[in-house]
Amino acid sequence: MKHRLPRIIIFLLTLLIILSLLPNIFAQDNNEVKPDSTLFYSSILETPKRAVPAFDHTLHEDSLGENSCAKCHHVLDTKENKLIYSEGEEAACAECHTALKEASHETCTGCHRRMKKDKKIAGPTTCGECHKK
Amino acid sequence: MDFYEIVRGPLAMIAFAIFIFGSCYRLISFYQKGTNPKLLYPKENLTNGFKAVFLGLIPFATRFMRERPVFTLITTLFHICAIILPVFLLAHIVLWFESYGFNWGNIPDNMADAMVFFVLFACIFFFIRRLIVPEVKMVSKTSDYLILIALFVTFLSGFLAFHQIGPYRPILILHILSSELLIVMIPFSKLMHMIVYPFSRYYMGADYGNVLKQSDW
Questions:
Q1: Looking at residue A15, what is its pLDDT?
Q2: DSSP assignment, residue B207?
Q3: How far off is chain A from B156, nearest CA to CA, in Å?
């Protein structure tokens, strides 16, 4: 009996949040992505545990604006020991990244999440919106 | 801001904060009630208390469990599934890794599916049991039914989200929200047994063994 009040308040608050944000919830990131790239799992032997994401290269080129290539493509500068963009040396992720899952989660989802934080239009951040079945 | 990000970030933090502070508050208030000088205390003999805590964790080790074989079987499997599933699911581990850099082994996805089915079945079983078994019905409160409903919704939406059945985003958000509701409910409902199980069991064991001179059932 003593703890009835907070419990009901929490439950009602949750309900309120769900109801007030219903339109937002149903706003699905449903832009049609054409799978025009075999960026993922093209050169490694590991069998993927989840559906391989479709990646639209042109969409990213067009929507990321200036320096769009440098947002993803990088090489390691061994002198300064940091990642830099070098024109003409662009390669697919799997060329270097054997831990492709970790690399693409960090680069793809990480960038989408940072863009959403900056209130920009961004790609999906939930699991199933990339790993579509 | 994106609602999924809110549910996953700040709301989860709030849920964990309520869980931690609420649990501390409940434990402190239990301690204060326990130090009431008017209460009778079992003699200072640790054996009976720890025996009760240990035997309570082993299926069919106590008379209470032997008298209810079907219930014991279902509740044991249910607890194993409900603990292993969220901790060792691949999708959850990936999220842990992304947020905090920890990584550990995962269970196969089809095994997870089987465990989900069992948890859902157990939820329905417990719900009906609360409704029809008189001694259980008598001690059931609204929150007890709410726990089972929230558990059912959490596991069902998790299953649907994994298989991408139905609208993906709303189901995923529902999955996270209902599990946050469960986390928030831990200190304020019978889910508190997750934390206080050893204490209450120890007390009963010590009380029965030392004072009433019989083993705890």
A1: 74
A2: I
A3: 16
- Top pLDDT among B36 and B161 is at B161
Give φ, ψ of A27 to 5 degrees. -75, 85
Looking at per-residue confidence, does A16 or B123 come out higher? B123
- Most confident of the following: A62-76, A88-102, A116-130, B187-201: B187-201
Q: Which domains does chain B have, with CATH numbers?
A: 3-31+68-191 (1.20.950.20)
Q: Which helix (H) or strand (E) holds A82?
A: strand A82-84
Across the interface, whether the CB atoms of B188 and A128 are under 8 A apart is answered: no
Q: Which fold has domain A32-130?
A: Cytochrome C3 (3.90.10)
Tokens 């059912």 sit at which residue?
Answer: B152
A contact test, residue of B1, B3, B160 with most A CBs within 10 A: B3
B189 CB within 8 Å of a chain A CB: yes
Q: Do B173 and A25 touch (CB under 8 A)?
A: yes
Asked casually if ipTM beats, i.e. exceeds, 0.85, the reply is no
CB B40 within 8 A of CB B202: no
Domain boundaries, chain A: 32-130
Q: What is the distance between the alpha carbons of residues B184 and A30, in angstroms, rounded to a whole number?
A: 32
Distance CA A68, CA A94 (A): 19
Give the pair of three-digit tokens for residue B192.
Answer: 């508190």
Asked whether B194 and B215 are in contact (CB, 8 A), the reply is: no
pLDDT of the residue at A31: 46
